[in-house]
Structures are given as C-alpha cells and as structure tokens.
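Sequence in, structure out. First:
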Amino acid sequence: MKKGNTLFFKTRPRIRSYAAICGSKEREGVIGEYADITLSDDMYGESTYEKAECKMLSNAISLAVEKGALTDGDIDVMLSGDLLNQIISASFAARDFQFPFLGLYSACSTMSESMLLAAALIGGGFARNCVAATGSHFASAERQYRYPLELGCTRPPQSQWTVTGAGACVISADVGDIAILNATLGRVRDWGVSDVNNMGAAMAPAAADTLIRHFKDTGEQPSDFDMIVTGDLGALGSRILKDLMWEKGYDISPNHVDCGEMIYKVIEDEFQGGSGAGCSAVVMNSYIFTKMSAGLYKRVLFAATGALLSTVSSGQGESIPCISHAVELLSLSNGNGAAP
C-alpha cells in the first residue's frame, strides 16, 4: 500500500542477517566491538585503495549471506552502490557472486535506498531474499571528490571524514527479528550549498523534507521512536536538521542520533564527524541492528542522506542536490534490557 510518498509493507520484510567491516580509525569508536571485521591496515592487503574498498564490500556481503545460513543460490538479487565513478566497488564486488545485481547510486543514502527497494521487491512478491549493501573508503573518496592525498591539504572546520567501511544485510520474506514496516521515498532538495566540504549543511534540508513527509504519511510523531537515525549529517548538519524540524513543529532532539556523529571516538578530531556511504552502512549493520536484535531498541527510523554531486558538477560551479530515504524498523525480539 502507498500513501503519499510512503510505502507500507503488509508482509513486513525482515532483516535476516547483517555484517559490517570497518577501518582502523573507525574501530576505535563505538562500532569497533560490534563490527564483524576491523582492519589494522586500511589497504586490506590490496595494492590500491579502490581494490580495498571493493574487497570490504564483497566480504561484508559474503558474511551477511553466511550468517543468514544461506548460499548464493538463495539470494534473488543484490542491491548495492558506492561513491566511486560508475559504482565500481559494487559492480566489481558483484563479480564474486552468482546472484543478480542491481547497481544503485544514491551517494551516502545508498544503504537506506537499497533496503527500501529490497523491501519493495519482497513485499511485492518478486523476491524472497535480497542483499542490501554499500561501502566507502576515505582515501578513494577523498582523491576522487577533493584533492590528491599527496598534497596534504588542510581540512576546513566544516568538513567530515569519509568512513572506511562496508555494511550489508540480507532482507528476507519471513525470517529475522527486525521487521521493515514502511519506507518513505526521498525527493531531491537543493538549497544552494556549493561547498564540497560542507556536506552537513547541504544534506540537512533533504533529511528534514523526508522526515516531515514520513510523519505526515504515517501519522506518527518523533516521540514514537526509540531512535531517529540519520546518516551522515555530522555535528553541524544535525544541528541544522533539528532547527528545520523545530520550525515545522517537530522536536526530534530527545531521540535523534547521527551516524556521522557517533562513529568516531573523538569527533573533534574529525571536525564534524564521519560521512560516506560506508558510515551509515557500518553503524546500522553493526551497532544498531545488534541492539535491535537484542530488543534494546524497539522502533527505529533510519533516514540516510546523500549528496548527489560529482567533480564535474562542482567544477562547473553547480550547487549540491541532495536526497534522503527513510526506512522504519521494528524489533520483534522479546529481549529485555535498557539501551546504554
């Protein structure tokens, strides 16, 4: 069923299994003890950063499928993308598997988009098991979007640090203790921000637009959720989002968290925090899903955000159009306890 821009899944597709891999910097933060693999070498034994990114994504997918007690033959489709030109990490990772592949580009909102589309395929009866996945690497993204790493350019205070990591989950028709209730499709929003270092300010309006439409379509309020998770606005973008929501009559301050704010141990060292497609993918497929599986978080609204820029558009003086897709999750676990 569809109301407004929100899809309601009567069959309640479920998160069957999940896996995450993170880099050496990321493992020092809150997700370090929850990720399946933490790297001591961000090259991951490869000769280039791009190959390391692809390897992380491929291994995260393999782990998620294995943890779901499935084989390649059980997966109907893999939905994935990344930040690199022509989504080469996802496309090349797909070579390692025998299941069909649908390549996506939604920048840092690829995790929520892939989950949304997987749930729609399952809810419509077109699939029983789907893989939703994405990742990023600091070194590969920085030299593609900004400056060659060898220049050692000074980072401005509004900048964020692209996360090195990958996350994947298997979404199934009827197995798993986390259900996907509904999902709100994002609209492209552009408020004229052109600073490629200021992702939080560029993406906050898109997050606000999607969250407001989600609340209107569902009749829910922010207080209905244990957590409203965005990714990855960082510290500055999160403050802007809260102000935008407050202006429209929604107070998300008590239960809003941002993946970019929480992923690093000391956010001040990274200015505004983390970013990149791997940021929300790692946080959701390690810390958040683990807590939900244990019943510590019951209802979570996940709204990843993406900046749809390229080096060409930035070089031509274009502003940064952004998007956010929201997915509502419900823990089916009977576990007891209080979230830390």
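Second:
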Amino acid sequence: MTPKQFRRLVYCGAVLLTFCAEQGPGWAQSGGQGDTNQSWNSTSDQHSPSGDSNPIRTVESHKEENGRTVDKQSVERLGPGGRYEPYRDTERESVRVDANTVRTIERTFGRGPDGQKALVQVREEETRNLPGGEQKVVRTVSNPDANGRLEIVQRELQETKQPRPDVKKTTTTVFTPDLNGGMTPALRTEELNTQKNEHNVEFRKSTLLPDGNGGWQVNEVREGTVTQESANSRTKDERVSRLDGDGKLSVVERTVSKEMESAPGETKQTVESYSTEVPGGFGDGKLQLNQRVTRVGRKAADGSQQTEEQVEQRNSAAPGDAPRVTQKTIDIVRPNGSGEAKEIRTIESVDGNGNLGVVWVDTRKTESAPTVQVDTKKESTTPAVKVDTKPKP
C-alpha cells in the first residue's frame, strides 16, 4: 500500500469516526444553536461577489421534544431560470431509547434526473453507556444499490473502557465489504488518554492496517500532550509518525495549538502546522512551518460576536520563503434581543497579484422558538432529555 493510499483509507475512516456527512456550509457551524434545548430555524445565502461560482441557499431547522431531536438541512442552488432549485437534503433524528442508549439515523437525499428526491446515503449510530465508564458505539453507512435497496458499505465498532480513573482507552475497528458478501476489518485505531496530573494529559492514537497474515501493523501514530497552563490558557502539542521506506516510524508532522484569553471578552487561538514535506519543494527531511492559522474572537456586552481568522501558508512557487497570508475570514453575529440573530461571514483570498479580495459571502438569519413553559405540578410520563447530535468543529 502506497503512503497516498494509506492516507486516503485513514481519511475515510476518520470521516466515519466523526459521523459527519459532507454537508453544505453552516451545517456544523450554526452559531452553537445545537447546544441549547430549544427549537430554531436558520436560513443562509452564500455567494461569490465576482459571480464566478453558483450561489447557494441553505435552510436549517432544529427541534427537541421528549428525548427526540430532529435536525434538517436543505441546500438549494441557483438554477438556469434564476430560481433556487433543491440540490441536497439531510435529515438527522436522534432518539433516547432508554437511560443508557441513544440511537441516531441520518439520511441524505439528492435529486434524480427529473428533479425527484432520491436517497443517496443512510448513516446510523447507536451509543450505549455501560457501568464503570465503559461505552460501546456501532456506526454503519449504507448506500442504495442499482435496485434501490440499501446495502452496508462500511461498519464501525467502537469500545471505550476506563481501567483507571486517570486512563481512558478507546479501540475502533472499521469494516468494509469483501468479495464473499461479508464484512472484513480494514482499519483499526487504538487511542489511549492518560491524565498525568492536574494540568497535563498525554494522548497516543495508533492507526493499524491488516498485515496480510491475519494480524495488524501500525502505520501511523499520533501522540502528544495537552497542557492547561491556567484557567484561560491551554496548549496542545501533537506529533505524527508514519512508516518510512525502511519500515520504521519517523516523525513527519507536528501541530502546536495554543488557546488563551488575550483580554476580557477576547479569545485567541493559534495553530501552527509543521511538516517534512514542503509545498513545491522536496524538503530536507526536517520539520518546517508550512501553515499558521490565527483566530481571534471578541464578544461585546450587547451579545454580538466577531471572529477573525487569518491563514498563513508557504508559497509553493517559492518554498524557501516564510509563510504568507493567503486567506482571511471575518464572521460577525448580531442578535436583536428577540430570539433572532443575523450572521455575516466574509472570506477573502489572495489573487494572482498577491492581494486579498472577497471571494465568498455567507449571510445567515437564525430564529429561535420561544421558550415553552412546563407545568411541573403535573406528572410527566416521558422525561425530556437533551441529546446533542450536532457535529463538533
């Protein structure tokens, strides 16, 4: 297996591990509305000021009731007649089966030749919490065959155990279809998190592939530390090792993330990515800074929020130069105090002359349903339990 094929398989496994389908802009970034136990609706319009890309409209909704959560997203694109036409729909439903089990099903629909709604994928997940901090998760991905019948194309089994209060171990195995109509293990990850002391956590995640003899071979290791310097400052240092030409693990990537409260109401996050591979060059086998992402968030007294993100990358045409600013994103959210919020996200990118220019604008409006008053004097036959199924950024 080539390094490129291995990275592709790891990526596919990671997509299933996060249980997050390819969604349009905003599905996973709805201003944190999924973290509140209430219903809301959101509409956003995305377009390029230059008109070189097709405008997109996204309509989302979130509803929670009696332990059942339903999220819907509809993506529309501008058609030839100047009207928005349905392009893709996603429906995610999460139900608490009992006190320890949550079942989630997500359906993605596309459009057929005649514009009819057609199912293209189903993702299912069942999570069970067991005594002693143990947790078991089963995830499946199913696609329709030529006759429209669903067939499983990927299954994942995840088991988390806590042998000690300071140790958590998670083993995940991804299965894919074999030639005999069954499912064969194709990828396994083993993750160990250890709380060393009050301020430090060590982590190690190994990715293994079948060795052809019924066993497993480690192909990648991600390990590092998370250090909580203070209540408002945290650093994560991660190193990635992969098999080299001699079959030995060697460090090929490093990522250093720092989060801190730089001022009252202001947070700052910096992520620096190092690699032995230099864009446009061959590198010298040593880790070099390829990208730096800086994100600053500010929250005002009136509830409005502003986030500015700046991306610096190494120029592939001049790999010897230091990273330069290649993209900026400004996100502003303004609530009106009556359950509505307006958000404008602007993306700037470098053009051929090295100048930043606006390439994408996303305008979003979110409406929250009024809080429902519950008469606690009456006996409830079904407990209302919050289930958060929104994917994390």
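Remark: The chain has a mean pLDDT of 86.
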